[in-house]
Write a structure and sequence with these properties.
homodimer, Glutathione S-transferase Yfyf (Class Pi), Chain A, domain 2, 8 helices, 4 strands, globular
Chain lengths: ~220, ~220
């Protein structure tokens, strides 16, 4: 097995800590007990070396031998092929994992991201845009509530990278109390984030950025 | 080879015609010269049978033998495994296809979808939400412009399903003149949509919904 190296920022401001997307990859690596190493790229100075790995100047990226992969969803699918702890290997199970990772990162996050960013920015709720975004998220959560009322995890075979993607997409909604009317979504998120692999990934991300504070001090 | 059946709505109102996401799948099927059949599901009445295939009550879904797959991105990756016209088969090429499909449907569409929906709805441009969404899209297009200035297609090996996803994500932006300051993005979109497979897919979608008009008349 080649060495897995996960790169994230050296430091981020306080508010996004615990929500930077390297968390998804850390979580998957911990679930599968895959050995990995963390590297840092400067938050303040995103140069050509960064853009060569991540063309939007974001994080994370993962290197696996001579492969360098960006987009957390693509990294999750890549890791899913390495461990049955992350994805089933039969054609139906694989297809279900891909469709639910996509559902998390497109159908749900396209609605949840503007919703949580608008709240994060403290924008007024009376603009027509705010009402539209509220309705968009509600349409998605109404359906996710129906799905999650009937199953513990998204894919029939059990916990998978699809749950890592979906749970992490729901976390910023929950942060602004957007799951209050969705008990099945709330219970699913609590179930996912109670897993030891999430707990370790989350603590490790916070410790990583705290170390960045000390390096800047 | 099992039969491929693509399901879309029987009818949609005029404004989304040409932009319904079955287009992405039709385009891929035409590029690969794969045989397929179109089925319809009622736009007005999205019942349990629909939700069993597509839990958000949307379209498209694709059945491939006893597999039923939703999310256009998941369908594109599934078809990518069927034809070298849609995706390379080496590990690096496969990883590049997955990361760029994800980039289109998460990094870019998460910014472009609220932008184009706000314009579609005719919302005022002076709400702080409007300015935020403008800035979010600009950050993504600035980077896509740099990427597309240096290559004809996203993945080194040539045209792939990643281009179908990215071009179709850029189309609603272009519809509201959002690529005017991005000549490389505009040229890329023109190059993609000039392909005979796109032209046929687009004409077929328009003809399908026109037949829906006649069935309702």
């Amino acid at each position: 097995m080649t060495e897995l190296v996960l790169t994230t920022y050296d430091w981020v401001p306080e508010p996004p800590r615990g929500y930077v997307r390297d968390l998804r990859v850390r979580w998957a690596l911990e679930e599968a007990h895959l050995a990995y190493r963390i590297e840092s790229t400067p938050f303040e100075d995103r140069g050509a070396g960064h853009l060569a790995h991540q063309p939007f100047g974001q994080v994370p990226w993962l290197t696996d031998g001579d492969l360098s992969i960006f987009e957390s969803g693509a990294i999750l699918l890549h890791l899913g092929e390495k461990s049955e702890a992350l994805a089933p290997t039969d054609p139906r199970g694989r297809a279900e994992v891909v469709e639910w990772v996509m559902a998390a990162l497109n159908s749900v996050e396209a609605a949840s991201q503007p919703w949580s960013l608008f709240r994060f920015m403290g924008f007024p709720g009376d603009a027509p845009q705010a009402g539209f975004v509220d309705g968009f998220l509600k349409a998605r959560l109404d359906r996710m509530e129906a799905v999650l009322a009937g199953r513990a995890w998204l894919v029939g075979a059990g916990f998978s990278v699809a749950d890592i993607a979906m749970a992490d997409v729901l976390r910023p909604v929950d942060r602004f109390d957007g799951l209050a009317d969705y008990p099945a979504c709330g219970a699913y998120l609590a179930r996912a984030t109670a897993r030891p692999a999430f707990q370790k990934a989350h603590a490790d991300q916070l410790a990583h950025f705290a170390a960045g504070d000390r390096a800047r001090a």
